[in-house]
Amino acid sequence: MKKNRIFTNIIDQGPVTLKAAQTRGDWGTTQEILSKGSQWIQDQVAQSDLRERSHGGEYVAKKWEKREAAYIVINACSNEPGSGTEKYLLRYEPHKVIEGALLIGAALGAHTCYICIRGEYLQEREILESALEEVREKNLLGQFQIYIHEGAGGTLCGEETALLESLEGRKAMPRVNGDRKLYGCSAVIHGVETVATIPEILRRGAPWFASLGTLHSKGTKLFSLSGHVETPCVVEEEMGVSLKELIETHGGGVKGGWGFFLAVIPGGSSTGFLPKEICNDLCLDFESLERVSSCLGTGGIVVMDKSTDIVRVTARLAQFYQQESCGKCTPCRVGTGWVFQLLERLSVGQGEKEDLDQLQDLLQRMSETSLCAFGGWAAAPVVSLLRYFQPELEHRIHMYNVASKRVKV
Prior knowledge:
Rossmann fold; Ubiquitin-like (UB roll); 5-stranded mixed beta sheet; 18 helices; globular
């Protein structure tokens, strides 16, 4: 796997100067790639079957169908719990991000790129600005312009139209009409990892990238391992790698051993929980996770052992999504608050079994009628709690009723 890794400096964590990046292969053949023209770049990306490295994994070639755009937007604004890969890329591989933005701009005829970065990423912004200054001094960007936009849009900026609203200086709220234009012109939005992957595809060729991974999940992917593992880390592995192998090889195993394993969040909090019985043979790729009603998301893996109070964890995530909701639509604005209140009570056993039915109804309405995808993201952890851990909720309700002498043991 080592020879196929794209992001070698995330492991080595060496210097991030232009000279060091060139030693690792960045910028080496950029002008040669550009000389082959936009159509060649588009064809290579299409043949590689590259998919977005976040959320639903849309094929990049599909996003490029219009074949032109005035602006490229790179989304480094998300703060979804459990995710951390974009921060590592900005900190240790800034030149791959910048080079990728230039190549995408050349492919789509864009003249400007905005890198939207969270205001909390102070160190990452300084590193990115320093890298930009170096490439400008060497005139590696030509007429292509890259600007860093510091935002505070929160998790909702994972929704593309909300990100564009934030970039235009307004509150991050989804657009009702789904318009994806920036300043009235066409724009293409990509995640940080997607952008940083493209230079290596164009250098090594689409067949190399397409030879890695699975049938519908090509190439490699960054995964962040956190929670109850011995060695939390960010690592690059081939798509389709076994979850158990990833945890044992790179995470040092589950604290207390695999037998003490309870559940995992496979790709950031919006992908929900998966219990141990599913995780024993689970592979990390788009199609495998779709089969278990989850998704690869950002690759933010959070491991939980049996010491975890999973109901309290879910309640905490529900509170997070309540606070992050923009409040533009009623299902999300009201629904996230009700879900949090219900979970707070159910976590200590207060309530009745009928409350679980009410909770299920709320979650369905949030997922199906919210203005944007945020309602579904907020519902996902609670949906998975009810699917896999409802007996735990019922047990707490029963024990609370026993303690309050409402029922007999």
